[in-house]
Amino acid sequence: MVQLRGFLFTLQMGRSNKISGPRGIHALVIKLSESDPLYGEKKKLLERKGFSAEVQITLEDSSSAEWTSTTLKTMQQIFRIIHLDEAELYFFEDPPLGCYSLKNEREVLNSMISHIDSLITITKCLQGHALRCLRDATVNLLKEFWDRNTVNDTIWNVKQCNEENHLLQWGERIGVNSRVQIARGSY
To answer: Is 31:75 a contact under the CB 8 Å cutoff?
Structure first.
C-alpha cells in the first residue's frame, strides 16, 4: 500500500466481493483519499469521466499489449485527475490532447512509475509480469513526453535568441549602446 498526495495505490489479492475471478488474482486499487482538500471536486470529475473514487484494475497473468495499453490509458486518466491542483481544477477544461498541463502530465507519469515500482518491490505475485509491462509502457510514455516537450523548449529558446539578437542589431544600427537603453526606450 502506498499513500501519497491525496490518493491510495495498493494491490489486493485473493477472492473478495471486490475482485472477480479465481483466488490469487490481484487487482490494482487506486483510491482518491477523502483527506484530499479537493476531494469533492476531484470525485465529481472522476464520476463525469466514468470512474468512481475507488477504481480497481484486475491484473492478468500474461499481459497482452492491448491490456497494457488499455490499462495504462485508464490509469493515466485517473492519475491526471488525482494530481490536479487547485488552479488546474479552477480553470478545468476537457483537454483535446488528454493532458491538463505539462506540469500535471510530468507529475502523473513520474507518480505512476514510482507507484508501480513500489508494488513490484513488495509483491511476488504471478502478475508481476503485468506490473513490469505497465512500468515499461509508462517509462516509454515519459520518454516520449520528455522528447516532445524538450524539443519545443529548444525551438522556443532558439527563437527567443534570434529575436533578441535582431533587437540588439537594430539597437546598434540606431546608436543604442546597451540592452538597458533598448528596454527603456531611451535612444
So the answer is: no
Q: What are phi and psi of 180, to 5 degrees?
A: -65, -40
Domains of the chain by residue range? 2-150, 153-184
Q: What is the mean pLDDT of residues 4-23?
A: 51
Q: Which of 8-12, 51-55, 134-138 has the lowest mean pLDDT?
A: 8-12
Mean local confidence (pLDDT), 66-91: 89
- Taking the C-alpha atoms of residue 17 and residue 79, their distance in angstroms, rounded to an integer, is 25
Q: 2-150: CATH homologous superfamily?
A: Rubisco LSMT, substrate-binding domain (3.90.1420.10)
Mean pLDDT, residues 108-124: 85
**CA angle, 134 then 114 then 53, to 5°:** 80
The three three-digit cell numbers of residue 137, written as one number: 509502457
The CB-based long-range contact list for 168-177 (8 Å cut-off, 24+ gap) reads: none
Q: What does pTM read for this prediction?
A: 0.68
